[in-house]
Specification:
The complex is a heterodimer of chains A (201) and B (915). Chain A has 201 residues and is mainly beta. Chain A has no helices and 19 strands. The radius of gyration of chain A is 16 Å and the shape is globular. Classes of the chains: A mainly beta (201), B mainly alpha (915). Chain B: This is GPTC1 protein.
Chain lengths: 201, 915
């Protein structure tokens, strides 16, 4: 059972995280049926995977955020404690955001593993909910089980916005990489959110 | 190289003369052709082997005269005073040296003269003379030589003659000769060698003569046995053609009869036959053998006589022709026995043939095998004396059924002590107390009993819990457990595939036992299990091993079964001998959790490993390979021996298969019923706080259970609804235990940081980072060691707090009441997680914890201290090292760093942690 998939930058590798506690890297160039590499360090299902230009970030139910640095040949494993539901890189590549089932988002320093910020207020206890960083790394966003999407100020950690998307659980969330534009999925629908001033062409 | 060749030559043994080493540019000499090769004698003379008188090629001096100087005429000087001797020249004077040498014509060596030469030599000479006489121009002349020649009579013959002996007579007293019958009776059998024909003939001739009464004769001469060795190269039995017969046969004294013994007509007949074949002169003797052109090459040395042929058609043995060879058996057998007697051979004097044949030796039939006999010996488990063990035995028999009837039929020798005692009606000996119950205090036992009864009432329907409790408190009753195990395993093992899983490879015998055990399990045999265990082991050992086997089988099974798809642990099970273990393992989460609680992210929560990405992956990511030389992919692994199953139970700390949905339900239904695993989806902060108490409890329970040979199995099975349910929980439970064990103690943690924080803040961070790495590896290795000796470590724990454990355990069954309610929810709760009894425990623990939070923690640490003795010692060693360094005031960096901070060690580790 695959939880998450992700292309790398050049779309030559598909990285998948699955419930069998492995992250698998599949080659897109060849038709090889078996993965290029299996990262089986996780002790529990892998809930989330993100890929940067030279890193693979995986969050696992065993409560760890693992960052495989291909360039340095290192594996950094940060213990968060609670099962990780979602991880994501910051745009500047300095931080990693990890959402966990204790209804907390944690911003970790990628290099040292130190905690840079904690964001609470939403509810995330059972579902695999997504977290996002805004296009400028100014805000941290997360889906919630109460039907809202929450945004926090990244630096201050204060709740900036609670966006009522629906009544059910907001199951997926995605932020536009360059534009202030948000995609949210809830109750079988996908919603696209833009700022008020936005004028469609 | 040259030196070595020299030394080689010294060692070599060489034969013959080496060829002259070839000079550079020298041409190889042409070998001398064979015809030009000449032979020289000892004096260098060519082609000279013999003297002139013995046919030498050269005589004298190179075929000239006597010496090199030539022939010197002998001077003849004779005067009146001195007359010259008339020298008579003998033949020797004209002979060469070779003629006088050993092989010459006149050897000078001492030889036996004719007088003393052996008779055989004479015979040969005689023969030669005879032949010569025959061949000579005037035949028969040699006969006169005999007459004329000097008689050479040996002294023995001379003496005999003086005593009245004459040649041709035998030696001995004269005897009266009995008149013989004219014809030898055909019925008389002649045994042994037939007499020489000539002799017998002679005797017959003599017999024909007139034999007066009272005349004695000398005994017949004895033909001496011919002992002449075979010197020629003729075939055995070959006799050269006698020239006297062959040449003069036709006109000679006797007629030449090549077919000796044949009658006239037959010889003619055969002779005609031969002639028709183109044979000349009828000289077809053995002397000529068989020519190449002749067809007959059968027995060429056989003398063919007509007597070999039957000439008359008649019954050879009268009375025997009635039946022929197809005679009835009885007749034939009777006949044969008689004939046997006939052919026995020469009957010795004083012996006579037995009239009755001896009775044949009686052959006894082998005993009939009992119907239930099995030709395979198996060892009955030796069960020590004791009441319980007897019951156990009974139970065993009942369970097997077949065994029972066996035992009833068995003789008294087959009974064991307890059975005999039972029959005799004696009371059992008070042996070593087999039950843990007896070690417990009265009060505890009472309580246990109460609990037992209560639970029995509730769990009437369920038999398993009862059994499990029995097995928990009775170490001897392993078979109860075993049957359960079999129930669990039987079905799954049935479809188990390969058996290359060798958890006991270290101990081949044990491995063998294990394999046979698994096989029997697969075949669904229930009772055979005990037979595979070593009979020489004690009951305790056997129980333990059985447990181990089950565990191993279970573990292997669990990874292979369909259930295994739900598990993450399938990493190492198929390795044969060694397990690949990640070199670095993530630190145990316990101290991390505390760090997380304190929001001390960073170093405490971070593990850093060397990780080798696949080359292709690097390529696809456009990243240079960080380890271009290494062939490793992933985390570097270390090979470790697979000592035991337990060893690699620790290696992976897999998590369970509980789906979020079920867990959610658990949470909703029973908020207090929290799974203890921190890696659950639904772990809350509270849960984390409880973690310590849980693990503590588990360790206690485990120690308890371990001492009773029933580790953690009963606990899971009590709530289990079926094998499929209990299996995962069993595994996870175990895992937890392992985790518990492998968790580094808090004081280790503190020790690391305390020591480093003593130092300057700037260096301390680096130091701690450095120190943490080695220690983690130490922990890893230590954990595996600990697993090997779980008893020792656990017993320490048990010693520490027996008082607390017992009540805890006794509470368990009672808490099941609550459980039964909660169990209804959701799909198949893994019992270990849904168990309400844990909840109770936790609460209790929590209370205590709240009361004396710090105290318990310290206590906990204290326990751990004991558990991790090695580790602590190592740490202590570290400290000591440092101290000693300080004392010696050596100039190493460490000491200089730490020197300044000796006084500031007053900081409590707690504070340091909080920092």
């Amino acid at each position: 059972k695959v939880n998450c998939v992700q292309f790398n930058e050049e779309a030559t590798i598909i990285v998948s995280g699955s419930i069998d506690s492995t992250v698998r890297c599949w080659d897109c160039r060849s038709r090889r049926p078996d993965p290029v590499q299996v990262l089986d360090e996780a002790k529990d299902g892998v809930s989330s995977v993100k890929v940067s230009d030279h890193e693979i970030l995986s969050g696992s139910v065993d409560g760890r955020v693992r960052r495989y640095d291909l360039r340095a040949g290192q594996l950094y494993s940060d213990y968060v404690g609670s099962p990780i539901t979602s991880v994501c890189f910051s745009k500047d590549g300095q931080c990693a955001l990890a959402a966990s089932l204790d209804s907390t988002l944690r911003l970790l320093d990628k290099e040292t593993g130190e905690l840079l910020g904690e964001y609470t207020g939403h509810r995330s206890t059972a579902y695999r909910l997504d977290c996002v960083l805004s296009e400028q790394d100014t805000h941290v966003g997360s889906a919630s089980e109460d039907g809202n999407v929450y945004f926090w100020d990244l630096v201050e950690g204060s709740l900036a916005l609670s966006l009522a998307v629906g009544r059910g659980v907001v199951q997926s969330l995605s932020f536009h990489p360059t534009l202030p534009c948000l995609l949210a999925a809830t109750e079988g629908r996908v919603q696209l959110w833009r700022e008020e001033t936005f004028q469609p062409e | 190289a040259a030196e070595s060749s020299d030394s080689d030559e010294e060692d070599l043994v060489s034969y013959g003369t080496a060829l002259q080493p070839l000079q550079e540019g020298e041409r190889i000499k042409k070998p001398v052709p064979l015809q030009e090769q000449t032979v020289k004698d000892a004096k260098g003379r060519y082609q000279r082997f013999h003297g002139a008188f013995t046919g030498g090629f050269s005589a004298g001096y190179f075929n000239t005269v006597g010496t090199k100087e030539g022939w010197t005429p002998s001077a003849f000087v004779s005067s009146r005073q001195k007359r010259a001797d008339r020298t008579v020249l003998g033949p020797e004077d004209f002979m060469d040296e070779e003629d006088l040498s050993e092989f010459g014509i006149a050897p000078k060596d001492i030889t036996t003269t004719d007088d003393f030469a052996s008779k055989a030599k004479d015979k040969i000479k005689e023969k030669a003379r005879q032949i010569a006489g025959v061949v000579a121009a005037i035949p028969g002349t040699t006969a006169f030589d005999d007459l004329i020649g000097p008689s050479k009579i040996t002294i023995g013959v001379e003496l005999l003659r003086k005593m009245g002996w004459k040649e041709g007579q035998g030696v001995g007293p004269r005897v009266k000769r009995k008149p013989r019958r004219q014809k030898p009776d055909p019925a008389v059998k002649v045994y042994g060698c037939a007499l020489p024909p000539g002799l017998s003939e002679g005797s017959e001739d003599e017999e024909d003569e007139y034999q007066p009464e009272n005349v004695t004769f000398a005994p017949k001469d004895v033909m001496p046995v011919d002992l002449t060795p075979k010197e020629n190269v003729h075939g055995l039995g070959y006799k050269g053609l006698d020239p006297s017969q062959a040449l003069f046969g036709a006109s000679g004294r006797e007629h030449l009869n090549l077919f000796a013994g044949g009658s006239e007509d037959t010889s003619n007949l055969l002779g005609d036959l031969r002639h028709s074949k183109g044979r000349k002169l009828g000289i077809t003797g053995q002397a000529f053998g068989v020519g190449a052109l002749e067809e007959e090459d059968d027995d060429i040395y056989a003398t063919e006589t007509l007597s070999k042929y039957d000439t008359v058609l008649k019954d050879e043995e009268p009375g025997d022709g009635l039946y022929g060879w197809t005679a009835p058996k009885q007749y034939r057998s009777k006949k044969r026995s008689e004939r046997e007697v006939k052919y026995i051979g020469k009957i010795l004097d004083g012996f006579s043939l037995a009239s009755k044949s001896s009775t044949p030796s009686k052959i006894y039939q082998p005993p009939d095998l009992p119907r239930n006999y099995r030709p395979v010996h198996y060892f009955r488990p030796v069960i020590a004396a004791g009441n319980e063990s007897y019951h156990l035995q009974k139970a065993l028999e009942e369970s097997t059924g077949k065994l029972e009837c066996d035992t009833t039929q068995q003789s008294r020798h087959a009974l064991n002590a307890s059975q005999r005692r039972e029959r005799l009606g004696e009371t059992g000996l008070k042996g070593p107390a087999p039950s843990v119950l007896e070690y417990l205090s009265e009060k505890d036992r009472e309580r246990l009993k109460e609990v037992k009864q209560a639970s029995e009432q509730q769990m009437k329907a369920k038999m398993l819990p009862q059994q499990s409790r029995n097995s928990r408190f009775q170490p001897a009753s392993t078979d109860d457990a075993s049957h359960k195990w079999q129930m669990l395993l039987g079905g799954q093992l049935a479809n188990a595939g390969s058996s290359d899983f060798k958890p006991f490879a270290r101990n081949p015998e044990k491995q063998k036992r294990y394999e046979s055990f698994v096989k029997s399990l697969k075949q669904g045999e229930k009772d055979t299990l005990e037979h595979y265990l070593d009979p020489s082991m004690t009951e305790w050992e056997r129980g333990r091993e059985q447990e181990e086997f089950f565990r191993a089988a279970m573990f292997y099974k669990s990874s292979n079964s369909t259930l295994s798809s739900r598990f993450t642990r399938a990493k190492y099970e198929d390795d044969v001998d060694k397990v690949e273990v990640p070199r670095d393992q993530e630190n145990d989460i316990d101290d991390k959790e505390t760090a997380v609680k304190m929001k001390m992210f960073g170093k405490l929560t971070r593990d850093k490993f060397e990780w080798h990405p696949e080359k292709l992956l690097c390529k696809r990511f456009n990243v240079p390979d960080p380890y271009p030389d290494s062939s490793i992919v992933g985390l570097p692994k270390v090979k470790r021996d697979k000592y035991s199953v337990f060893n690699f139970l620790t290696l992976s700390e897999p998590t369970t298969s509980v789906t979020p949905a079920t867990n959610e339900k658990i949470q909703q239904n029973n908020s207090s019923n929290k799974p203890k695993k921190p890696s659950r989806w639904d772990v809350s902060d509270k849960e984390k706080e409880k973690k310590d108490s849980i693990s503590e409890f588990i360790s206690l329970a485990r120690s308890k259970v371990d001492a009773q040979q029933q580790p953690s199995v009963p606990a899971t099975e009590e709530c289990g609804t079926g094998p499929s349910d209990t299996l995962p929980t069993e595994v996870t439970n175990e895992d937890k235990d392992q985790e518990e064990e492998s968790r580094p103690s808090m004081d280790l943690f503190k020790a690391i940081f305390a020591s480093s924080s003593d130092e300057k803040s700037s260096s301390s961070e680096e130091e701690s980072d450095e120190e943490q790495q080695p220690t983690t590896s130490v922990i890893d290795s230590e954990t595996t060691k600990q697993v090997d000796l779980p008893d020792s470590s656990l017993s320490n724990v048990q010693e520490n707090m027996p008082a607390t454990t017992d009540p805890d355990i006794s509470l368990l069954p009672a808490s099941k009441q609550e459980l039964s309610a909660t169990e209804e929810f959701g799909p198949k709760l893994p019992p270990a997680f849904s168990s309400g009894r844990f909840c109770r425990l936790h609460r209790k623990e929590k209370h205590r914890r709240n009361r004396e939070k710090h105290k318990t923690k310290r206590e906990h640490k204290h326990k751990k201290e004991k558990k991790k003795k090695h580790k602590k010692q190592k740490n202590k060693g570290k400290h000591k090292n440092k101290k000693s360094e300080k004392d010696s005031s050596s100039d190493t960096e460490d000491s200089s760093d730490s020197l300044s901070d000796i006084d500031t060690t007053g900081l409590s580790p707690k504070e340091l942690l909080r920092r």
